[in-house]
Amino acid sequence: MLGSSGGERRNAFTALERVMRSECVTWTDIGDVIEHSYSEDELRELVDTVRKQERARAPQSNGHIVLPEASEMAEYCHQRLGRLKDDKQRSFVSDMYVITRHGMNLTLGRLGYLASIYIQIGGRTR
């Protein structure tokens, strides 16, 4: 249902977050599971496959979101540290801001957590 559009997506996301809260699971936990369940090569292959599929569908409007580059998300979040929910998020965003400013890539787990923070504080998707 997260791939749906409009209200279905919002309802599915709300239900997902409710279950995550009740089970004390965070987006960081999910990113960590993904990051530690696959080798770097497997994750790169997965990302390449998803990107190829997205490019193949690009001419059509399919309702999927496209996030900015990690450096843009990190800068956006860093400029809004006061909107973050706790010191853990502020520390994470500050670290990601420095890392991306130096041109370093993020692991998929870190990228996923950064994206979730970015969206939560109102970052725009394309």
Summarize the structure.
With 126 residues, the protein is mainly alpha-helical. The chain has six helices and no strands.
Walk me through what this model shows.
The protein has helices at 6-22, 27-37, 40-57, 70-78, 87-101, 108-120. The protein is an all-alpha fold. It has one domain (6-120). It starts with 5 loop residues before the first helix and ends in a 6-residue tail after the last helix.
List the helices and strands and how they pair.
Elements lengths: L5 H17 L4 H11 L2 H18 L12 H9 L8 H15 L6 H13 L6
Descriptive tags:
single chain, about 130 residues, mainly alpha, about 0% strand, globular
Span from first to last CA?
A: 20 Å
Number of helical segments with 4 or more residues: 6
pLDDT averaged over residues:
83
Extract low-pLDDT stretches: none
Say how many strands there are. 0
Overall tally of structural domains:
1
Strand fraction? under 5%
Question: What sequence of helices (H) and strands (E) makes up the elements?
Answer: HHHHHH
Helix content: 55-70%
Shape: globular
Structural class: mainly alpha
Instruction: Give a short account of the largest sheet.
Output: none
- What is the CA-based Rg, rounded? 15 Å
